[in-house]
Input
Amino acid sequence: MKNQNVNQKYNEYVEARLPKTKAWPSLFNSFWVGGVICLLGQGINDLLLYLFPYMAMQSAWAWTLIILIFLASLLTALGVYDKIGKFAGGGSIVPITGFSNSISSPAIEFKHEGVIYGTCVKMFTIAGPVIVVGVVASVAVGIIYYIIGLF
Output
């Protein structure tokens, strides 16, 4: 009974200290910032296809991703992407730029601990599970496609 009372008091304390968010403005900001990031990606893709008319569509997609990842890493290093993330929430996290930010941010933050124990370890703390899940999921989907192709 005493443990339950302590838990209840702790939950009340946490609830009182949590910052109150306004759901609709947060959702709106997330929506339009995520849309602007996607619009920027589409603009880069269209510009690449316009400037290099003989570029294959898949090459333009790859270069668009490379440019977006670079821009997000650069904005992270300059401290701008964190402000965008604080303002936009999930709208800045969901696109590939959010993944770039989640890798470069710890790498920048822990660089004083050295290349191996600081930058590399912290960078792959976030990226590691995502990469593992991506590889496992792609292998599973490949096996399913292979089995379907046999029939």
Remarks:
- The helical segments are 2-17, 23-51, 57-77, 80-88, 90-93, 96-109, 115-150.
- The chain has seven helices and no strands.
- The radius of gyration is 21 Å.
- The mean pLDDT is 82.
